[in-house]
Write a structure and sequence with these properties.
Layout (H helix, E strand, L loop, with lengths): L1 H29 L15 H23 L1 H7 L5 H22 L6 E4 L3 H20 L6 H4 L2 H9 L20 H8 L6 E3 H29 L1 H9 L11
Antiparallel strand pairs: 1-2
């Protein structure tokens, strides 16, 4: 009984760590008057700051991409129980998020600054809406499995482990990668774009485009003809239907 309680508490902690890391990145990019905002701090030399920031950003992305690969999971679950693999990933993601925000080098030079209150308000509403859509995209693919709770609950109940299912519902019926698209969009949705945020926006877009190639290869290997058919019907990022 004690072991089951510990498993459940570990998974709940992972879930909360995952939500906290999302909140951290949301407030970081919003450049709110907080100690961890993207433009807070003493600026350093330009090119070294660019190099450090890209290394942090791509290191954050590489952690996500590597731990999502099937070959990594095969080896990783020899050390970590499969029921706790996703929760452990969320703890690691939270750590990488803190590292990204903590070591980020501010480059506060202004690229654009929209001072109109109405226009700025619309941008902030759009910013929050995109994050909301990204969060909502976790539900069709299994929100609690995505955040590691379902796996732990199956272990506690001694029920057979279920595989993550495939879905073409909700946003996945419009584009194949709604969460990845959100990551490419949110850094641009700001009334005050600085060079630091521009580096984040460009770096994130480049990383997502490259990482998606490997993600799609994994999905084809796992789902076969089902995913190939889905890929012919639904575009990757731009919600434009392909002609039959």
């Amino acid at each position: 009984m004690r072991r089951k309680i510990l498993i459940l508490l570990y998974a709940i902690g992972g879930y909360l760590a995952g939500l906290a890391s999302i909140a951290l990145i949301v407030t970081f990019l919003a450049d709110l008057p907080l100690p961890w905002a993207i433009d807070v701090g003493e600026p350093g030399a330009f090119w070294p700051s660019v190099a450090i920031n890209l290394a942090l950003l791509w290191g954050f992305g590489l952690h996500h991409s590597t731990t999502a690969r099937r070959w990594f999971k095969r080896h990783w679950t020899r050390l970590i129980p499969p029921a706790l693999e996703r929760a452990t990933y969320l703890y690691m993601t939270a750590g990488m998020s803190v590292l990204l925000v903590w070591l980020w080098q501010p480059i506060p030079a202004t690229v654009w600054h929209l001072r109109d209150p109405l226009g700025a308000g619309l941008l902030w509403a759009t910013y929050l809406a995109v994050w909301g859509l990204m969060f909502s995209a976790t539900f069709p693919i299994g929100h609690f499995r995505f955040f590691g709770l379902a796996q732990a609950w199956e272990q506690v109940r001694e029920a057979p482990a279920q595989e993550a299912g495939f879905t073409g519902r909700w946003l996945y019926g419009v584009i194949r990668h709604p969460i990845s698209l959100g990551w490419m969009l949110v850094p641009w949705i700001t009334p005050h774009m600085t060079m630091g945020q521009l580096i984040f926006a460009i770096g994130a877009a480049l990383y997502v485009l490259v990482a998606t190639i490997f993600e799609e290869a994994d999905l084809v290997a796992e789902l076969g003809e089902t995913y190939r058919n889905y890929r012919t019907r639904v575009p990757a990022f731009l919600p434009i239907r392909k002609p039959w």
